[in-house]
Write a structure and sequence with these properties.
single chain, 336 residues, alpha/beta, 2 domains, six-stranded mixed beta sheet, 9 helices
């Protein structure tokens, strides 16, 4: 069903009357955001710093930009270099009232959120959700002896000290109409990107902007994993003999569908809301043709998975220079 919220989000990327009607509210929103950031920057020296470095992976727009696969990649890079990383998240979509909360691969996504469960499953590293990310970071340091913290989202959570900021940008949709909420998709004015350490562009045809120290992140897919038996894998090209159902409850479902279509697959597309809470009926289509979904969706569907349900894991790739620059900066931080 096309709700007002969906219409509003769509208006951010096209010319729409809503943009002009909501523009005054966007001006107020931008002003409040700027005042809030100025306050936290001005008072940063009065707050107790953390004892380990903090890397923020966030964005300045609403909706999915590719933060989660970047976080997973970053954790693996840190572990390869001998760090003991821990991850913190707001746990968006979770209903728990107890904080901070450890997240493990078999945690209930309805309690802690879908993305934290996905990250915990993929990295096998300590993962904590808490609306207070500073409290979560201290918990990781005290309880798990982590020597570096990665924050999944939190670019606007200014109470959390940070040594490195990485902003992820949707390489296709970029910044939409360029306005702040609610007339546009921006959480902060676009000029905020000039202050972060790296701007990561997620796919798209646009060339990275060297003035923003922007680097390209290539996200690709190659195979599907069976939900009932993860040891069973199939190349995506093997699904081209018949139509398949494609499920996506993410910030930008069209990107996932396009990636599947690039393999020549014929899709029955089923776009759900971001952080969709799935029930078994959502995956029943009165046939037994394969159902392909994102890994983020899969963590919420395992309990009622059938043999024809598959998820498609994402892989990311960067030019080697990005890793070099990132870890050089980490080494030069106040904790290096």
């Amino acid at each position: 069903m096309n709700t007002f919220k969906q219409k509003l989000a769509a208006s951010w990327y096209t010319k729409h009357i809503l943009t002009y009607l909501l523009w005054p509210l966007s001006v107020v929103f931008c002003l409040l955001v700027s005042i809030r950031r100025y306050y936290y920057v001005a008072t940063a020296g009065k707050r107790q710093p953390l004892s380990v470095p903090v890397i923020i992976v966030g964005n300045i727009t609403v909706g999915g930009t590719g933060k989660t696969p970047l976080v997973i990649w970053l954790i693996e890079q840190l572990k390869q270099r001998g760090y003991i990383p821990g991850i913190i998240s707001r746990g968006y979509g979770g209903s728990s009232s107890e904080w901070p909360m450890d997240v493990v691969p078999n945690s209930n996504p309805e309690d802690v959120g879908d993305e934290p469960v996905l990250i915990a499953s993929s990295t096998q590293s300590p993962m904590i959700v808490d609306p207070d990310r500073l409290r979560a970071a201290n918990y990781l340091i005290e309880k798990h002896a982590c020597n570096v913290i990665v924050s999944d989202d939190g670019l606007q959570h200014y109470r959390l000290p940070r040594d490195i900021e990485i902003a992820v940008v949707d390489g296709e949709r970029r910044f939409g109409n360029g306005y702040c909420l609610p007339a546009g998709p921006l959480r902060e004015p676009q000029k905020r990107l000039a202050e972060v350490d790296f701007v990561v562009s997620n796919s798209g045809n646009s060339k990275p902007n060297p003035n923003l120290n922007e680097v390209a992140m290539r996200i690709y897919i190659a195979e599907a994993v069976n939900l009932q038996d993860p040891s069973v894998r199939r190349a995506l090209t093997s699904f081209d003999e018949e139509p398949v159902h494609a499920i996506a409850g993410i910030g930008h479902p069209a990107r996932f569908f396009s990636m599947l279509q690039a393999y020549g697959l014929r899709l029955h597309e089923h776009a759900f809301a971001d952080h969709q809470v799935y029930r078994s009926g959502d995956l029943e289509f009165n046939d037994k043709i394969p159902v392909l979904m994102t890994e983020k969706d899969a963590v919420k569907c395992r309990r009622f998975a059938q043999t024809h349900h598959w998820y498609v894991p994402l892989e990311v790739a960067f030019e080697p220079i990005f890793s070099e620059q990132l870890f050089n900066l980490l080494g030069k931080s106040r904790h290096g």
